[in-house]
Design goal:
By secondary structure, this protein is mainly α. The protein has 6 helices and no strands. It is extended. It comes from Oldenlandia corymbosa var. corymbosa. Keywords: Disulfide bond, Hydrolase, Protease, Signal, Thiol protease.
């Protein structure tokens, strides 16, 4: 169970870092470079300057020197072959697109019997 929690926490952290990178003004191209740092001071400053954030960010000593490539390896990411990446279309959406404030896949697709089932992660 602890192994699942750590994995979920790391995956959530990577998603959060990616979102914060974009909000902090870092280009997504720079963020996804294999050798760029996962944690950046600009992200911490941006979060901490927002009084409505509801939390305080800090530079975790554990991940301070991790690169994107090292963090992906830590998460168990398997490299995607270049041929697949090159043939995958890029879909963009306008920045003013309104996204829902809440979304639950179980209610959006109730006909899917497995969507709410969590499989063994060991």
């Amino acid at each position: 169970m602890a192994r699942i929690s750590v994995t979920v926490l790391l995956l959530f952290s990577m998603m959060l870092i990616c979102q914060l990178q974009v909000k902090a003004g870092a280009s997504t191209q720079q963020f996804f470079k294999h050798d760029s740092k996962v944690l950046q001071k600009s992200i911490v400053e941006r979060v901490n300057s927002d009084a409505t954030a509801g939390w305080k960010a800090d530079m975790s000593p554990r991940f301070l020197n991790y690169t994107v490539g090292q963090f992906k390896h830590l998460l168990g990411l398997k490299p995607t072959p270049k041929s697949i990446l090159e043939s995958t279309p890029v879909i963009t959406h306008p920045p003013h697109l309104k996204l829902p404030t809440h979304f639950d896949a179980r209610t959006a697709w109730p006909q899917c019997a497995t969507i709410g089932r969590i499989l063994g992660q060991s």
